[in-house]
Amino acid sequence: MMISNLPKELVEEILSRVSFKDLRAVRFTCKNWNAITKDRSFANKQIEKVAASSSSPGENQFVMITKFNIYLIGVNLLRTQNNDFDLSIKRNGTLVGFNSSLEAFHKSSQVIHCNGVFLCVWGNMLVLWNPYWRKTKWFLPRHSYGGSDLYALGYDKFSGSHKILRFFGPNRDKLDFYDLSSNSWSVPDGTLEWDMKHTKSSVSLKGNTYWCAIDEESGDYYLFCFDFTSERFGPPLSLPLTHEGHVYLSAVKEEKLAVLIKMWNTMEIWVTNKIEPDEVSWSIFLKVDMETRLQIGSFLVDEEKKVAVVFHQDRSRSKRIYNNAYIIGENGYFKRVDLRKSPYTPLSPFKCSYVLSSVQIK
To answer: Higher confidence at residue 120 or residue 146?
Structure first.
């Protein structure tokens, strides 16, 4: 029997075993295979296989950009002898997209990831990109571009459609909203009741975006959320600190939110017990005495092993890299990993975490 006469289900199973990087060659082989590989059910099947083969349990994937490539980096925490820990860092592949993708990433003032889709803010251009489909969408904001514009990317939980929220104006007090399902701009309901000039880090979780912000009058930190399903802001939410320290956010397996608080002599990491656009509760995850001054680039949390990894960004060089990683655990466990020594390698800063997705960009 010729392969062209095989049942569609069997062809799907065979093609789903093709590696992600070789999929483009398959699509050029024949029209039928091209159509099959562009079917979303096939995409989901292949993504499951890629995830199972390229990632180990507990691995975190990040996007790392160098001068010539955009890499997927897998970071895993390993438990060694005597209840010690070490890092496993490997390249899981190269994200291959359109010819301008690398330039867009390098020159973008903001790179945002949500559910397999990237939003790059490149000058006055917005670029949406899904590396799986090698598809991009270039478009302009509806109103005039400003260098202080702030963007967020999320999705509707019911339709799965991605949406973009834009803050613009001198004080970032004006709002605009873009829906990919209708390719249209609109003004979201509700008003912005806080000052976006003093927002800190943000993170996408369950299709929503969360920010840390500072009250300009009191100096207190708080958390707030934009719900991309209801297209509304939630109320200000509490953070486990008042007005001292530096604050960083991270997602934990797309289920929880973690906040790292670095004070002058201690570092604390808290994880949410519950997180919704209008409600949050926290519990302490780890605390360590640490007077070391850090330029924190990113951090990740492993709840099962009860450890966290903090990447230190060396800004003393012209080329910013991660030279050190700090593993923090229970009972004051603290370990510095020099990424400049074998078998490690200095890492360019991670832009964001990443997961493959079959979401279509039209």
So the answer is: 120
The rounded radius of gyration (Å) of the Cα atoms in the chain is: 21
Residue 35, pLDDT score: 77
For the chain, how long is the longest CA-to-CA vector? 76
Can you tell me the distance from the alpha carbon of 102 to that of 238, in angstroms, rounded to the nearest whole number? 38
Domain residue spans in the chain?
A: 3-47
Tens of pLDDT, residue by residue over 265-316, are 888 999 999 999 999 999 999 988 876 677 777 888 989 889 998 887 666 5
For residues 362 and 158, give the distance between their C-alpha atoms in angstroms, rounded to a whole number.
18
| pLDDT of the residue at 118 | 87
In this predicted structure, what is the pLDDT of residue 257? 94
Tell me how far apart the alpha carbons of residues 260 and 250 are, in angstroms, rounded to a whole number: 8
3-state secondary structure string, the chain?
Answer: CCHHHCCHHHHHHHHCCCCHHHHHHHHCCCHHHHHHHCCHHHHHHHHHHHHHHHCCCCCEEEEEECCCCEEEEEEEEEECHHHCEEEEEEEEEECCCCCCHHHHHHHCCEEEEECCEEEEEECCEEEEEECCCCEEEEECCCCCCCCCCEEEEEECCCCCCEEEEEEECCCCCEEEEEECCCCEEECCCCCCCCCHHHEEEEEEECCEEEEEEECCCCCCEEEEEEECCCCEECCCECCCCCCCCEEEEEEECCCEEEEEEECCCEEEEEEEEEEECCEEEEEEEEEEECCCCCCEEEEEEECCCCEEEEEEEECCCCCCEEEEEEEECHHHCEEEEECCCCCCCCECCEEEECCCCCCCCC
3-47 is a CATH 2.60.120 domain: no
pLDDT at 343: 62
Residue 58 has pLDDT above 90, yes or no: no
pLDDT digits (tens, 9 = 90+) for 307-327: 998 887 666 554 566 678 888
What is the pLDDT, as a whole number, of residue 41?
A: 76
